Amino acid sequence: MSDDTRILLVEDEKVIRDAVAAYLHRDGYQVTPVGTGTAALEAFHSEEPFALVVLDLMLPEISGEEVCREIRKTSSVPIIMLTAKGEVDHRIIGLELGADDYLTKPFSPRELIARIHALLRRSRVDGGMKDEMISYDGLQIDAAGHRVLLDGKDLDLTASEFKLLTMLTRYPGRVYSRMELVEKVLGYDFDGYERTVDSHVKNLRAKLGDDPRTPRFIHTVHGVGYRFDPPEPPSESEAEVTK
Known about the structure:
Helix content is 38%, strand content 22%. The protein is built from 8 helices and 13 strands. The protein is α/β, with parallel strands linked by helices. The strands form 3 sheets. Strands 2-1-3-4-5 form a 5-stranded parallel β-sheet, with helices on both faces. It has helices at 14-26, 37-46, 64-72, 88-96, 109-123, 159-170, 178-186, 193-208, and strands at 6-10, 30-34, 52-56, 79-83, 101-104, 133-136, 139-142, 147-150, 153-155, 175-177, 218-221, 225-228, 240-242. Helix 3 (64-72) links the parallel strand 3 and strand 4 (79-83).
């Protein structure tokens, strides 16, 4: 199978792990199922690259939060976090650690597969952006290489952060509502979307060194959403979109 079908499934409850693995196999994915945080990190670092990770929050040996944190040190692979905790704060913690999405148990395997499809679509370079390079005031986005540089330094962005930044920079000055962002970046609607988008923006701002009080790039439009504004109107040498 191709690399974009490889999924690492990390779930300590065997009944859930076996059921989810069966659904994923049926949908054409190649699944590596593990039951502990230690096994998850060993599999992630020892096997061929995974296209996506499904990660339970509550794990023996090493927690899901720590597994997510370790993965994010070296990889921007899409991560869906599973949690039995229904409180929004726990889900937001997962997103702030670098997870791209979350599902609260109990969940429908069909919904999980729909989320996986959406994340994998986002992680691939869009055909219309394939050869595009966007530059603004020291910020460079290489769509083909899925790479972002700020003042010459590589930024390690998750798939969601990359998609969010690319959307905002393609139309500087345009205000996107939170609903627009969750639909265009996440690919679907779900409860808690406002907090989810805010978490992704918070993470992205931190990596850009963007102070929300005096933003260099991403501005908050109170009561509406967000817009990208470079520090000053870009000249031909400072901002261009080439294809």
